[in-house]
Design brief:
By secondary structure, the chain is an alpha+beta fold. It folds into three domains: 66 residues, Uridine Diphospho-n-acetylenolpyruvylglucosamine Reductase, domain 2, CATH 3.30.43.10; 150 residues, Uridine Diphospho-n-acetylenolpyruvylglucosamine Reductase, domain 3 (2-Layer Sandwich), CATH 3.30.465.10; 104 residues, UDP-N-acetylenolpyruvoylglucosamine reductase, C-terminal domain (Uridine Diphospho-n-acetylenolpyruvylglucosamine Reductase, domain 1), CATH 3.90.78. Helices cover 24% and strands 27% of the residues. The protein contains eight helices and 20 strands. The strands form six sheets. The protein has a five-stranded antiparallel beta sheet. The protein has a four-stranded mixed beta sheet with strand order 1-2-5-3. A four-stranded antiparallel beta sheet has the order 13-19-18-17, covered by helices on one side. The longest helix is centred in the C-terminal third of the chain and has 19 residues. The radius of gyration is 20 Å and the shape is globular. The two termini are 27 Å apart. 40% of the residues are buried. The structure holds flavin-adenine dinucleotide (FAD). Flavin-adenine dinucleotide binds next to strand 3, strand 8, strand 12 and strand 13. The site of flavin-adenine dinucleotide has 31 residues, from strand 3, strand 8, strand 12 and strand 13.
């Protein structure tokens, strides 16, 4: 029998720190916990919400749902001639996994250091930072398929990873519950240093090893982003909008300082933080919610506010960007 907790407080389960309760919650510490929770008649009429570290969700109110608190541990290494294959339980912390692989001499995840949350959530939005995305280090994952009632293995191609996107944000949403993730870390390692800020941070280090790259990333991120333990936030709140070359060129003609990055398919990614900054929102507070003073892409919660108030602010920002630049910016976190 699953050990359901009633009206469970979620404030410490979301990095915004919003107060919300779950009608039911259950700790999932292994695959049997998952099967027994999902087959329990007490959740028959309730939606299921899967929660890892809660670092990419906005809780807009109490959840009339059963929340699965994903805490499955596990760490295993296999290898072939070319790569290490590292499997982590869904509940392992992502940054802990990055550190452990580097400490054990398996480089490859250093650019993704200090991203909060769990290993099991990393594929959901294909986490990325400083020139590396999860898909470049991903082999496969294991998940419970709620449609078939079986555990399945899902490979790289099937995950259909895109920029902050995957199968699990589209047709696989509400279908798969990830229990383990396997990463492929090539033994022939090359540091990825094509990010201006990172190169500057490593100035004077001629051939940095993975631990040095990791430390540089941790230093940059600690300066730039608010620590969720001190100020509630979910990292970047908006995705960088991708526009075609003609729109980007027209915007550039009107706004010569526009920050944009060419994409392999000829389109351009616009820096959402820059667009928001130009609309005058950086550092603006609206009661207990606001925009971080050092980075306009990050929305913050100072305490005592609600997810609904934060969403209202996010909509005002998106409307202002649309009115000013004719481009719609979309939230990155999952709204619950
Ligand atoms: C300060 C800060 C910095 C950040 N920086 C970055 C960054 O650089 N790059 C980046 O990509 N992201 C970043 N993020 C966002 C976030 O850390 C990642 O998206 C992370 O992968 C979310 O993990 P989580 O365990 O907290 O997921 P949650 O927030 O708990 O869940 C996110 C989504 O995944 C689903 N989910 C979670 N676990 C599972 C599972 N086991 N099976 C199926 N579905 C699941 C949830 O239902 C939800 O839809 C940042 C967040 C913060 C607070």
């Amino acid at each position: 029998m699953a050990d359901f907790l009633e009206f469970y407080p979620l404030r410490t389960h979301n990095t915004f720190g919003f107060d919300a309760r779950a009608r039911l919650a259950v700790h999932i510490r292994n695959e049997s916990d998952l099967v027994s929770a999902l087959s329990d008649h007490r959740i028959d009429n309730l939606p299921i919400v899967v929660l890892g570290g809660g670092s990419n969700v906005v809780l807009t109110g109490d959840l009339d749902a059963c929340v699965l608190l994903m805490e499955i541990p596990g760490y295993d290494v296999a290898e072939d001639d070319a790569s290490w294959l590292v499997t982590a339980g869904a509940g392992e912390t992502w940054h802990g996994l990055v550190n452990r692989t580097i400490d054990e001499g398996m480089p490859g995840l250093e650019n993704l250091a200090l991203i909060p949350g769990t290993a099991g959530a990393a594929p959901i939005q294909n986490i990325g930072a400083y020139g590396v995305e999860l898909r470049e280090r991903f082999a496969r994952l294991r998940a419970y398929d709620r449609q078939s009632g079986d555990f399945v293995t899902i490979d790289l191609d099937t995950c259909a990873f895109g920029y902050r996107d995957s199968l699990f944000k589209r047709e696989g949403r509400d279908r798969y519950i990830i229990t383990a993730v396997t990463l492929r870390l090539p033994k022939a390692w090359q540091p990825v240093l094509n990010y201006g800020e990172l190169t500057r941070e490593l100035e004077g280090v001629s051939t940095p090893d993975a631990a040095q790259v990791r430390d540089a990333i941790v230093a940059i991120r600690s300066r730039k982003l608010p620590d969720p333990a001190k100020i509630g936030n979910a990292g970047s709140f908006f995705k960088n909008p991708v526009v075609d070359a003609s729109l980007r060129n027209a915007l550039l003609a009107d706004h010569p300082a526009l920050v944009s990055y060419p994409q392999p398919d000829g389109s351009y990614k616009l820096a959402a933080g820059w667009l928001i900054d130009q609309c005058g929102f950086k550092g603006v507070d609206d009661g207990p919610v606001g925009v971080y003073g050092k980075q306009a892409l990050v929305l913050v919660h100072h305490g005592g506010g609600t997810g609904a108030a934060l969403l209202a602010l996010a909509n005002r920002i998106a409307d202002a960007v649309q009115a000013h630049f004719g481009v719609r910016i979309e939230p990155e976190p999952v709204i619950l």
